[in-house]
User: Which sequence fits this backbone?
């Protein structure tokens, strides 16, 4: 079957109509689509089929919505899309190998600055992304940074995964705090009080790809430190970094024992088991409690809030981000662009964001109006992730250096070395500086 | 008068294939070629490529250029690399010794006439049969800083007041991963040595017993020398498996805390694939070769000395 432009447009129109009938965003989505300028339309190549490698879903509804949108795309265009899933930490190596050998999935839904590791192996998507930005209210700057290199779009930003402090309201109140502290000093006092009450906090100092890196970057940035400057010159060795380490040591002293070994799952487990009263995580932690009747008491007690503001004076966090890249070895790049264009259509994207239950935060500003962000107060801190996130490797450029430094846990190790007493703060900074210089040489 | 014999008909000239078919050397070479091609393609080429990459600054997605020994110079000054060398040697030495001692002990037990002997042998194999990742996940729970069953039992017995920080303290973590490796590796050693024990004629032990040898003397002077060749092979493999271990560490600690359990294999992966520094990762992998060669040479020139094998040393 030959899919031409007319077929695709007809199919898309049919999908919009179907969306109006079945989805909660149908009418609004269709209206938005009609009002918005038409996104770029790409004609899939004859006989095209696609294979997408994505991270395993954390929220069941998210996967179902993504798959439903994919099926709708196939129905509309005849392009078969096979979706492979990989544990989220294993997407990076698998995509890297695919990029290196020029074979494997056509598209990859990957993390952080992965596309910057192999920009030459990716299809330029400037036409697609500029059209999507124009049609859907524009891209958030932080997300855009993960898609653009030297003025050229190399990847399509998909979402930010918001990170917020999840805490037990009753424990915080029992520790003497009627309101959650907004600054780092108050936060330290809260953690000290929680420890005194036997209901401590816990943040991962182990090699936790997401939670460990988020925590370490927040520690550094909230105190005004930065790994490199705008030019990519290593500037980690600063009084601000030393202050961040001193703060981390005090905070660590209030944690439950064992956080040095925590991987990404440990903080969730400890929180849901009632071992810690406070940690930072995606909203999936709340939903894990909610779906288990035995944890109703914990679910009802959970509150969320953005990480406190440090001496730097403004909220600064590293949120996990995901992008979708098209490999140059893909035989059907137009079909891949058509697929992405279809998935970002207002009704489709809204359906997906809602189904993700605040786990996936929009990359395009139009979707900030999605009711998911106001339907539950628990979601509110996550709604700000796309707007407030700082990109990895701040203040330097994204690229293999920033990706490598994070993958090598440079900041995570620096804080872990210092707080556990393995090295002095000066030694830990010097070691981090040396490792960063290797990546940014 | 009989007719003169007809001149012998000239033998037809043999084809190339026929001559190859009759040549032992040519046939041997021919039969060896598939295996040689297999070895070159799957072993020599990747190894050669790895060595070459170690001399380049190749990054994921980008071909590198030859930079000589720069990667090795950097690693020489890298405290994390040297920590992983120490960790790897520590892990290999202690885990291998323990696996040998416990494996030999189990093999000797299973070599006796025990009731349900076959059942016990099957049970012994279980840790080896279970996929490494699954057993690592089990140990992850066993060593969890909050939910460890060991800590729980000891706390219930009143032995300790707080959970043991198995994977958070550097030395605890090192011993914990060694314990997991021992559990997993014992079956290989035990079953292999059991096979070796069963090849030793019972008559030799009986003769020694009649001569008045004690059980320890029979073990030291009869069993052990005859078992030495299999010990050499088993321990060579055991050391190689342990030295290059990856899965167990990756699942349990990913090299933490603070790189205390990072092995050369895990550091090589971390730098090469997630970190994108293929050249540096390859250099770390190549740096493992001398240690592996040393283990193999020790086996050949140490454990396999013929005199010792024959019990004359």
Assistant:
């Amino acid at each position: 079957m030959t899919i031409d432009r007319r077929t695709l447009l007809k199919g898309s129109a049919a999908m919009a109509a179907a969306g109006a009938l079945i989805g909660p965003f149908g009418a609004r989505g269709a209206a938005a689509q009609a009002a918005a300028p038409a996104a770029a339309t790409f004609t899939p190549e004859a006989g095209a089929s696609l294979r997408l490698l994505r991270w395993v879903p954390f929220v069941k509804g998210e996967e179902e919505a993504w798959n439903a949108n994919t099926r709708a795309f196939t129905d509309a265009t005849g392009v078969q899309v096979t979706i492979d899933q990989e544990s989220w930490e294993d997407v990076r190596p698998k995509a890297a190998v695919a990029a290196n050998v020029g074979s494997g999935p056509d598209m990859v839904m990957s993390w952080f600055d992965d596309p910057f590791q192999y920009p030459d192996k990716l299809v330029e998507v400037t036409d697609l992304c500029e059209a999507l930005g124009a049609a859907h209210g524009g891209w958030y700057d932080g997300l855009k940074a993960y898609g653009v290199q030297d003025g050229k779009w190399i990847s399509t930003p998909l979402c930010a995964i918001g990170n917020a402090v999840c805490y037990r309201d009753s424990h915080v109140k029992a520790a003497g705090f009627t309101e959650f502290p907004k600054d780092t000093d108050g936060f330290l006092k809260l953690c000290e009080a929680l420890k005194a009450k036997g209901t401590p906090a816990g943040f991962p100092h182990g090699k936790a790809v997401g939670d460990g890196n988020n925590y370490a970057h927040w520690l550094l940035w909230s105190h005004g430190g930065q790994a490199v400057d705008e030019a990519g010159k290593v500037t980690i060795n600063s009084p601000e970094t030393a202050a961040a380490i001193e703060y981390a040591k005090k905070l660590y002293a209030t944690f439950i024992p064992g956080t040095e070994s925590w991987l990404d799952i440990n903080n969730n487990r400890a929180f849901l088991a009632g071992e810690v009263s406070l940690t930072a995580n995606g909203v999936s932690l709340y939903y894990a409690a909610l779906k288990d009747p035995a944890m109703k008491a914990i679910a009802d007690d959970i509150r969320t809030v953005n990480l406190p503001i440090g001496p730097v004076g403004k909220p600064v966090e590293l949120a996990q981000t995901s992008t979708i890249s098209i490999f140059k070895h893909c035989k059907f790049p137009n079909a891949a662009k058509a697929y992405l264009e279809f998935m970002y259509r207002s009704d489709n994207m809204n359906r997906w964001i809602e189904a993700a239950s605040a786990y996936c935060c929009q990359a395009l500003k139009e979707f900030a109006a999605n009711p998911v962000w106001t339907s539950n107060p628990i979601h509110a801190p996550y709604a700000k992730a796309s707007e407030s996130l700082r990109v990895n490797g701040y203040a330097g450029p994204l690229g293999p250096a920033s990706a490598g430094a994070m993958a090598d846990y440079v900041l995570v190790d620096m804080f872990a070395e210092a707080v556990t007493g393995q090295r002095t703060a000066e030694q830990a900074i010097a070691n981090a500086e040396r490792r960063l210089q290797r990546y940014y040489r | 008068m009989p007719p003169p014999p007809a001149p012998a008909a000239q033998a037809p000239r043999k084809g190339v294939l026929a001559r190859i078919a009759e040549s032992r050397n040519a046939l041997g070479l021919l039969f060896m070629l598939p295996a040689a091609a297999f070895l070159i393609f799957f072993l020599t080429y990747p190894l050669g490529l790895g060595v070459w990459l170690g001399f380049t600054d190749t990054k994921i997605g980008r071909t590198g250029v030859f930079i000589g020994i720069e990667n090795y110079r950097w690693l020489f000054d890298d405290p994390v690399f040297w920590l992983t060398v120490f960790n790897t040697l520590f892990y290999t030495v202690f885990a291998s010794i323990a696996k040998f001692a416990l494996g030999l002990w189990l093999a000797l037990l299973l070599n006796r006439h025990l009731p349900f002997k076959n059942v016990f042998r099957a049970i012994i194999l279980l840790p080896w049969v279970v996929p490494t990742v699954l057993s690592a996940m089990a140990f992850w729970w066993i060593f969890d800083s909050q939910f460890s069953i060991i800590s729980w039992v000891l706390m219930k017995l009143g032995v300790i007041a707080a959970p043991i920080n198995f994977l958070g303290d550097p030395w605890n973590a090192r011993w914990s991963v060694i314990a997991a490796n021992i559990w997993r590796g014992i079956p290989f050693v035990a079953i292999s040595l059991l096979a070796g024990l069963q090849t030793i004629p019972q008559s030799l032990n009986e003769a020694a017993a009649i001569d008045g040898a004690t059980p320890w003397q029979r073990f030291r002077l009869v069993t052990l020398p005859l078992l030495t060749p299999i010990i050499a092979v088993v321990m060579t493999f055991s050391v190689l498996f342990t030295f290059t271990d990856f899965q167990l560490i990756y699942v349990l600690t990913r090299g933490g805390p603070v790189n205390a359990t990072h092995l050369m294999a895990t550091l090589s992966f971390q730098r090469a694939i997630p970190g994108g520094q293929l050249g540096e990762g390859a250099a770390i992998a190549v740096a493992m070769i001398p240690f592996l060669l040393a283990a193999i040479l020790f086996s050949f020139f140490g454990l396999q000395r013929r005199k010792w094998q024959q019990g004359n040393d």
Notes: The interface with chain B takes residues 92-93, 96-97, 99-100, 117-121, 205-207, 256-263, 266, 269-270, 273, 275, 400, 403-404, 407-408, 413, 416-417, 420, 422, 431, 435, 438-439 of chain A (CB under 8 Å). Residues 5-22 of chain A form the longest helix (18 residues). Chain A is about 45% helix and 10% strand.
